[in-house]
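Sorry, any thoughts here?
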Amino acid sequence: MAAEMALSHRAPREVLSEAELEEVAKRKPPTKPSLRGCLHKTRCSGSAAKSLLFRFLPFLRWMPRYPIKDWLLGDILSGFSVGIMHLPQGLAYALLAGLPPVTGLYSSFYPVFLYFFFGTSRHNSVGPLREVLVPTLISLPTLYPFSGPFAVISVMIGSLTESLVPSENFLESVNGSNATVNEELRDAARVELVATITVLTGIFQVALGLLQFGFVVTYLSDPLVRGYTTAASVHVLVSQLKNIFGVSQGENSGPLSLFVTVIDLCKKLPETNVGTLVTAIIAMVAILIVKELNHKFAAKLPMPIPIELITIIVSTGISYGVNLNDKFGISVVGNIPSGLKPPVAPNFSYFGQVAGNAFAIAVVGYAICISLGKIFALKHGYKVDSNQELIALGLCNFLGGFFQCFAISCSMSRSLVQESTGGNSQVAGVIASLVILVTILKIGELFRDLPKAILSAIIIVNLKGMFKQFSDLSSLWKSNKVDLLVWIVTFIATLLLNLDIGLAASVAFGLLTVIFRTQLPHYSILGRISDTDVYRDVVEYEMAQEVPGVKIFRSSSTIYFANVELYAEALKKKSGIDVDRLIEKKKKALKKLKKQQKKLEKEKAKRKKVLPPLQSPSLPQNAEDGPGLSVIELNVGESTTPSEPTLHSLGLPQPTFHAVILDFSPVSFVDTVSIKILKNIFRDFHEIEVDVFIASCSVSVLAQLERGNFFSSAITKHSFFPSVHDAVVHISRERQQASVDHSTRM
């Protein structure tokens, strides 16, 4: 209490301008990076090498301290649980990517195993992407637990395989009449393409991580991602309908391909395979019921019932026993080769065609991974290195591409299962990868009779959570209509333009909304709330009263080339006087005055010629009128020479205020254009006899003004003040001093 009393009764501090504050506070000169300093930071030493090794191989830091007794059992149980989930998901999302099912198993093995060495998150489960959570780090404590899986990466890859390697390129005639697709050649070509995309995606991610560009994910806002994933879920749904109805359908890609596919499907509905449709419906109903039970009894179950795996096993058994393919024409997965394949180099000729798509996949995949990793890190009290996560994901993709994997990211559902079943580290990921390895080596070939309709049913059921995102429309309507517009435009653009172009268009539109919002900020005139040093908008606060003779102007945005002219116009409008018109009138009045002065000077010159010269000093006393008049004229002329015409002397209206304060608290940076316009503001208001002051200008902005040659003899740092109140007090004191000086002269 004593300290509070002392603070409340201390004497008010002296008002300081920025120039005076720099002298009192002894501002340090800006430091310039030197070559020697950079070399000193990058020099090689034992400790630097060790730190670098631990940074790129994080498992070396935590593995020696791994608590075997406390964590091992939980990691083993968690690994088996996640491995069981990997199997149906890997098969299903390989189908979604337009690839042979075995590539889904490869993508569930290699990246998971590699992430153990390079990842910094203890709970992330990598592999074929099932779902998306919002990647804005601002909302990290908030988890968006979509109840179903969603293969955004798989469908992005699938759109590429269909456009660059369509089935039509592999048609072969049978018996000289019917043409069928050579699936073996097509699948081989698609695997080569996708492996190349995956390698390039990994290169982008590693490069961005090494360059510390982990922040690129922030350009994907919450509404943008949710609108994008909702539209992508529609693409996924439409792509799987042909397997549900059991019809053969051509592959379409590019803008409007979604609508072409839907129209083509409607035309082929009479060809529906009833057996395939019944199989899919039964599977979807069973999966939906068990998932609801899993959700309802989540607290009582040690782990979720693996209904997807059970459905695959049961349907495969029935298909094999009844021979669904031959008897009812139900399409099955077909041969799944056992064993691992040797690494194959990517086809570099594809790089130019897929570079843009690979970059989009790299950014989207990383956004999901880092968001999920930071959520678990926040919950369990450890740190996740965002740039190292980008490198880890990139290495998983880069190396996985050589082994016929497709691009992967982290799965929220598997990560949640890994955490909830006792997983404490990426040892659980290693166990899960071993489960998949056993499947690839021995068990995978048993699923050759698995109906494709079952995999499509698994994909469609897991879209349920994604379609719940349509509820965003009502919440965004109430909270932020600009974000609602971003959501809708992203959704429509992704539907119309497909996933790759739609994402680019959505990001561009999202950035444009930011630019538009900075171009149309809220401008306000501030007033002082009585008995305080707080200043608020006079329109919004009844108790805020304008300081007499002072206009305090504030913009809610920073100022730069795109909005600084609007800033200047708003300032002149808010001041309540037409500054430009008044300056124009002043120029006309000065021009008129100048003409009058020239005319007067000509008349004086004529009078001097008319006057007789002084012949002698013996002139009579009463004859001095001529010369005396000339002297008087000259004296009068000298004494009435105007110093500087004022608005009052010119007969022009004067502003009702004598000072303007620009509140720079929202200004975070300035550029050369804004510096030029600020100079014009100082000049224009000086023309109408109004002083301009700037308050609450940050040191960084002040430094930018210095580098931009803003200051001169006319504009000095004495016009800058640390706060609005300091500027108001300074103006008030100067006004009082001027009044005292004027009364003294009188």
Observations:
- The radius of gyration is 38 Å.
- The mean pLDDT is 81.
